[in-house]
Amino acid sequence: MTVSSMTGFARTDGAAEGFGWTWELRSVNGKGLDVRVRLNGGFERLEAKVRDAVSKRFKRGNIGVTLNVVRASDSGSYAVNRELLAELIAIAEEFDNTSSLSAGTIADLMNVRGVLEAIEPQEDEATRDARDDAVLSSLADAIDQMAAHRAEEGEKLDAMLRGHVDNIEATVTRAENCAAARGDAIRERLKRQVEELLDAGKFEPERLHQEAALLATKADIREEIDRLKAHISAARDMLTKGGSIGRKLDFLCQEFNREANTLCSKANDIELTNCGMELKVIIDQLREQVQNVE
Questions:
Q1: In this predicted structure, what is the pLDDT of residue 127?
Q2: Which Pfam families does its entry note (predicted)?
């Protein structure tokens, strides 16, 4: 499976039994799956099937589904409302005799709403079911198109996400190699500080060594480095497996950010601080792109 974006578009056309139709599908980012369906031309009965078909293919995204239906001009007949037409003619003749304005022609009166009425052709259930099947088949094609579009966008996202993960790894490696992050450097610095305080005679030696041990533990970033490396490995595994991984990646970004914050709080020199700040920037960039992942 590959990484899929939540952004996509599809359009398909079809025709059968005197009807023509167009499906349009649009998808944008969303926290969950929100399907909005607009059907016209008397096809509202298909809404449940449309929602079911979309929900089976997509897990996240705000998806709009629109069906526009046009009936062929020769697919039905018309009836004249003679009673209304006669009334309009009588009114027209009355005004024609009392006014200098033209009363118009029969063709003009035919354009009045209600004079010319379309007669819907009678059809049996088998004909309607066959047309419904054709419309739904066209929807399936549109869903396939949008899935392909989302997958295409997902390939671009995958490359960007992997690039951000690579940058995180490089920054973590720099932090790990900082002189101030090495255990021997931490011990040497604390030893020097303890000796200076002992020479000043301000603290009890035993209590001072306890505090020094506590400070040494707080200054050690090896646990944060190890967890960051584990998160990097987890992110790459998710991207390799693909599928609906957007929520998992978003949670992983939160874990990345937590370790970066801890790293910054433990930083005791400018080089390590810079690594922590750069890490937070890259994680924000990663999380921004993750919001597009299904």
A1: 84
A2: YicC-like_C (PF08340), YicC-like_N (PF03755)
Side chain identity at 280, as an amino acid letter? K
Helical spans, DSSP H, in 20-124:
47-57, 82-98, 106-110
Question: Which stretches in the chain have pLDDT values below 50?
Answer: none
Picking from 160, 143, 220, 164, the residue whose alpha carbon sits closest to that of residue 187 is: 220
Residue listed under structure tokens 């533990």: 217
Q: CA nearest 181: which of 262, 116, 61, 241?
A: 262
Rounded CA separation 217/211 (Å): 10
Structure tokens given for 287:
């999380």
pLDDT the model gives residue 266? 81
- Per-residue confidence (pLDDT) for residue 87, from 0 to 100: 84
3-class secondary-structure state, position 257: helix
pLDDT at 166 (0 to 100):
97
Contacts of 16 by beta carbon, 8 Å cutoff, 6+ apart: 130, 131, 134, 135
Query: Which pLDDT score is estimated for 161?
Result: 97
